[in-house]
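User: My instructor asked us to take a sequence, write out its structure as tokens, and then describe one feature of it. I'm not sure where to start. Here is the sequence I was given:
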Amino acid sequence: MFKHKAVILYFAAFILLITIYSCTPEGEKYLKAGIEKSQQGDYQGAIAEYDKAVKADTFLVEAYINRANAKHKLKDYRGAIRDYNKAVEMEPDRASGYFNRAIVWNDYGDPRRAVYDYTKALEIEPGNARAYFNRANAKSIIKDHEGALQDYSRAIQLQPVFPDAYYNMALAKCNMGEFRSAITDFNSAISQNAGLTDAYLNRGAANYRLGDVDAALRDYNKTLELDPGSVVAYMNRGVLKSKKGDQQGAIGDFSKAIELNPKDGSAFYNRGKAKQAAGKMKEACKDWEQASKLGYPGSWELLAKYCK
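Assistant: Let's start with the prediction itself. The structure tokens for your sequence are:
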């Protein structure tokens, strides 16, 4: 049996809010210096300046927010959350504190807390399309697909040109088995961003699930036109070519996948199946032996059955 794979990608949207409000002259000086270093990519240096800023003015919310942003860049998630906590405590009506903290919660692996913070941000700024989009992404992670669809729809209402929202909404629908509706959303994403490679890739998977092999093949062809290094597209196209009886074409695609990723046991397994269908049993056995060495399930059984 051939294996069919589809890649599901999650686009984590993320905004750093760097602003300056009224503060003490000394605090403002250090805050500006920190922002300059952040813009140069010197986040450690920026944190040192923000440390001076909060020491000079302990009520300088912008210093806490920007220091949190810099810590987030350095993957110091706990440190970033502590600074956002301080900012939210000082100014509970500022949406950016909740919004940015939500991003960190998500990266820290706690999407439920991210959903809570995006909700708080939306209570303050109900017209923030990006907050709806990010909350939908977090809901998708916790498998609240219905809630995610509602948020993606709201984000699109607020910002009609939003290809990533259409794309992610399509992925949520795929996870719910709503492939026809998902294809409509993939179409919308592509119409707004014709270079969105993964929209073609995953639309191909949706078409395959609906039994439209020719449409799926067209999507994988387009994926490879845009991204010649897509192992998944070669694998999926190889599966479909084999199903259509084009074993040589399938072998070529699986061989390309192996060239790109020689440690992918499934590519050897599937190439072996295509070679078996083409009557090349010795070559098939070699592929299954390699797949078995790479730990791909089912390979050993084929070796035992056909390659004695």
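For the description part of your assignment, you could build on this observation: The chain has 17 helices and no strands. Try explaining in your own words what that tells you about the chain.
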